[in-house]
Each structure stands twice: as C-alpha cells, then as structure tokens.
Amino acid sequence: MEKKPLITPHHNGPDPAWIYPVRSPLDWKRRDGRIVLEYPKNLNRLERALNRVLKGPENIRRPLDDVGTLLWEMSDGEHSLLEIYIEEQERFHERVEPVDKVVGGLLETMLKLGLMRLEFHPGGKGRQGEGARKGSRIVVRPAR
Questions:
Q1: Where are the domains of the chain?
Q2: Residues 19-51 pLDDT 10s
Q3: Residue 144 burial (CB < 10 Å; 0-12/13-18/19+)?
Q4: pTM
C-alpha cells in the first residue's frame, strides 16, 4: 500500500504509522454487511440481581456502522492506524472528515470499553527489536 501523508490539520500525538489496533477476543458476527459485537455486560452486584429478576439479557449486542465495521475489520494487528485512516478516508470521504477525529473518537470509545487494545511499534511493524513495546493506553486525540 502506498504511504500517503495524513491529510488533516488535527493530528497531534504519536505517529499513527507506529500504532497497531488489535481486536479483543470476543464474539462478533457479520449481519447485512456490518459487524455486530457481542460481549458480557459489566454489572455491579445490585445490577446483576436486578438483571436476574427482570430476566434481562446477559450480553450487549453492539452493531457498528460502516465506519466502525471497517475499523473493526482492519484492527487485526497487521494494519497501522495510518493505514486505517487512509482506507477510511478513501472509502467514506467527507463522512469521516477529519479522519483522525472521527475514527480516533470511535477507537477511543472501543478502547474504553475494552473491545480493543493498541500495540506501539516505533518505526513500524517491521522493526520488532529495540524500542518496540506494547501499550493499551495510547490514544490519538485531536488538538483542541
């Protein structure tokens, strides 16, 4: 894939070419061309008791839109955040402008929910040796 510069005035933070999103191991299905995630609810003791009494579902089903579906599909640890940004920009154009803010916000939500983690590889994925480390709290945030 040709490396194009990230076209956005909002990028501020680590180089997105060094960040690799990775999906958490959870159940997911494709329905009507979109991804639906299924994961257990994070309930406290009182909420669990109420959930049993009210016979509520034990899992959350979270359908993703087209932008989220592409993010989920490409978050395999092999595609950098920059590659994901470029693909999202090419496929959805103005809908994801500025791409780092829109896709980064979605990614940040998935990180907070524990649906993804980030790996950080300075210099890119090919450079695994010195300086390579894994992280789960790297979030690309737009400048305010």
A1: 16-135
A2: 899 999 999 999 999 999 999 888 899 999 998
A3: exposed
A4: 0.73
